[in-house]
Amino acid sequence: MKKYFLYLFLITLFSCEDDNEKLITLAQKTIIVYMAADNNLANDALLNIRQMQQGYRETGINFIVFIDVANKPPYLLKIKESACDTIKTFPELNSADPQILNSVLCEIIKRYPADNYGLIMWSHASSWLPAEARLRSFSKDGNTEMNIPEMAKVLPVHFDFIAFDACLMGSVESIYELCDKTDYVIASSTETIADGFPYTQMMPEFLQKSIDLRKIAAMYFDFYNRKENAERSATIALINIRELDRLAMEINKLTEENEAQEIDRSSVQRLDVIVEQYHFDLQDFVNQLFPDANKENFVAQLNKTVLYKAHTPRLLGMYDINIYCGLSCYVSLADRQDLNAYYKTLKWYDKAGIFRLF
Q1: What beta strand segments (E) does the chain contain?
Q2: Measured distance CA(295)–CA(340) in Å, rounded
Q3: Whether the predicted pLDDT of 4 surpasses 90
Q4: How far from 312 is each of 151, 192, 224, 231, 308, CA to CA, in Å?
């Protein structure tokens, strides 16, 4: 009965649209892939789309891809088993513009209304770092990049999950910006190999009516852990967003009740290959800040927040990963006041009491 009234509502909502716009019957789930690949990842994006098609099996779930690659008009695809359908071709646009992200997502949701939605964000990324830092916050189109708070603000619906097929999006600062936008996040805290998610293997699970997100994350890890040399490189985590506020509260309590120790940034587990280093393991950072504090509640809450985590022994053949809690964080850099000033605008800075550490 509930679906029946929702269906009538959708018919009414879209009845004023152009006659060429056809309402598609309400599905249980629509999964959207937003591929901002108008950059040097274009070939990787096209390869991933072929993998999606190879792994696709009809289950009644809509799997819709927006792709923007260099020297070609952006377009919408409906992934199918036999041949992908091009739903719409767009004029040239900037896929790193938050308003474009919003309009594309709204277009897809209008065409493929569902009870539930999943979102895969595919592009370059460097987590919370601002676009002005020229380090790719999320996506890259020409000289334009998208800051995470702006990206979060324009997401038009609440998603069951958001998976980032992109580098460095497993930072607690970035994920916290999504607190009211999704229930779960799958992300890597480190750089990722351009091959991206192994979609051929993942598609059957994505197309289940009830997706096992732990299995999705494990498929990613297993795929790269079987590789050799520098290609054996991956971190991945499944984050329960509903527990993230409590994690912030536990860190806030630690910063309020304990005196933070001065630490050497180079002693904290690094999680990026950037020369200055901006991404570090959250638990290792907290442990070194408060070596003598009782951290049992923090650890217990961290374990409730991070539902799955895995890492290879090394990253890109450049450094060892000895500690990985599933989330990265920023450790302030004294001579980067530009980054520190921007960091203070992030929600995590106040909620977790990080202002006491700056």
Answers
A1: 27-37, 62-69, 75-78, 85-89, 114-122, 138-141, 144-146, 159-165, 182-187, 235-240, 280-281, 306-311, 314-315, 319-320, 328-329
A2: 26
A3: no
A4: 30, 12, 8, 10, 14
Three-state SS at 164: strand
Number of H helices, E strands in the chain: 12, 15
What is the residue type of 219?
A: M
Q: How far apart are CA 332 and CA 327, in angstroms?
A: 16
Cβ-based neighbours of 112, under 8 Å, separated by 6 or more? 24, 27, 30, 62, 64
253 closest CA partner among 306, 305, 307, 296: 296
pLDDT (tens digit per residue) in 172-182: 999 999 999 99
What is d(CA 157, CA 138) in angstroms, rounded to the nearest whole number?
19
* Percent of the chain's residues with pLDDT above 90: 83
Residues counted in the chain: 358
Which two tokens mark 342? 């921007």
pLDDT per residue as tens digits for the range 212-240 = 999 999 999 999 999 999 999 999 999 99
d(CA 121, CA 38): 14
Residue 3 has pLDDT above 70, yes or no: no
Q: How many CB atoms lie within 10 A of CB 283?
A: 20
What is the Cα–Cα distance from 187 to 175, expressed in whole angstroms? 9
Please name the residue that has the structure tokens 């592009």.
Answer: 123
Cβ partners under 8 Å of residue 89, min gap 6: 73, 74, 75, 76
Residue type, 250: E
Is pLDDT of 136 > 60?
no
How far does Cα 271 stand from its chain's mean position? 16
Could you give phi then psi for residue 122, rounded to 5 degrees? -125, 120
